[in-house]
Amino acid sequence: MEGFDHDHPGYKKLQEIGKEITTQVKPSAVVVFSAHWQGESNQILVNTAEKTDIIYDFHGFPPRYYQVKYPNVGSTPVAEKVIGLLREAGVGVRAVERGLDHGVWSSFRCAFDPDDNPLGVPIVQASLFDTEDPDQHYRLGQAVSALRSQNILVVVSGMAVHNLYDLGVIFSDPRPLPYVVTFDEALKDAVEAPVTERQAKLASLLKRSDARKAHPTFEHLLPVYVGAGAAGADEGKRMWTFQEASISWAQFRWGEVA
């Protein structure tokens, strides 16, 4: 596969998760929230396009990354379900047409290789809010929770720890910086907290002394709040983590695979 490091542990873990989704979960569609799409402070944007290209929304990378392709289809009916649920919950929402950003296609290209493990169902992307409010994003997840009972998988794409400023300085040393370890473990504890305590514990993460080191801006963390909100009464679990330099590749799941 062009552009990807097949030997990286994260690549192999995404392949494993993708295979589990296509062979065991077998969703009828996927709704995904990515760190790389913010709507407005009080309005979510939902992609209603049936045919979607991919967006190379990054700069300064080797040319091979701009040659990656990821064939996919959207679904206007599924997008309308998302819009309807958000409106019912009193969430501002607007329909748009756009491509998939790299917060979606880069991970999906690893998990759902078109040749070896095609996803085979529509992908509908929705934005985050253009805020750093954890409870607002938790409520966003709650608003779309009913999709899960309709066999529509809700996926959230971000990073457990994401500090590219430090990554540029220490790229030659893969050992995790102290804040990577401490914040990654604190995030695990919050995600795995009892459901009645989960929202508060997740919100408190943003007040930690290491939070702005782990996330100089919070957009890569906020998708986990959407996922936790969408989980309803299902408990969260960290399936895997890999701490590397100034980032963490942790993967989480809410609920069990039937």
Q: Which helices and strands, and how do they pair?
A:
Elements: H1 9-25, E1 29-38, E2 43-47, H2 76-88, E3 92-96, H3 102-111, E4 123-128, H4 134-143, E5 152-157, E6 161-162, H5 164-170, H6 178-191, H7 195-204, H8 211-214, H9 223-230, E7 236-240, E8 243-244, E9 247-248, E10 251-254
Parallel strand pairs: 1-4, 1-5, 2-3
Antiparallel strand pairs: 6-9, 7-10, 8-9
Number of strands: 10
Low-confidence stretches: none
> How far is the N terminus from the C terminus?
31 Å
> Helical proportion?
25-40%
Gyration radius over CA: 17 Å
Q: Strands of the biggest beta sheet: in what spatial order?
A: 4-1-5
Based on helices, strands and strand pairing, what is the structural class?
A: alpha/beta
Strand percentage, roughly?
A: 15-25%
Q: What is the overall shape? A: globular
H/E topology pattern? HEEHEHEHEEHHHHHEEEE
Note the main sheet.
3 strands, parallel
Number of helices: 9
Summed over residues and divided by their number, the pLDDT gives a mean of: 94
How would you characterize the overall build of this protein?
There is one protein chain. With about 260 residues, this protein is α/β, with parallel strands linked by helices. About 35% of the residues lie in helices and about 20% in strands. It contains nine helices and ten strands. The chain has helices at about 10-25, 75-90, 100-110, 135-145, 165-170, 180-190, 195-205, 210-215, 225-230; strands at about 30-40, 45, 90-95, 125-130, 150-155, 160, 235-240, 245, 245-250, 250-255. The strands form four sheets. A three-stranded parallel sheet has the order 4-1-5, sandwiched between helices. Strands 6-9-8 form a three-stranded antiparallel sheet. Helix 1 packs across helix 3 (about 100-110) and helix 4 packs across helix 9 (about 225-230). The longest helix has 17 residues, at about 10-25. It is globular and about 45 Å long. It starts with 8 loop residues before the first helix and ends with a strand.
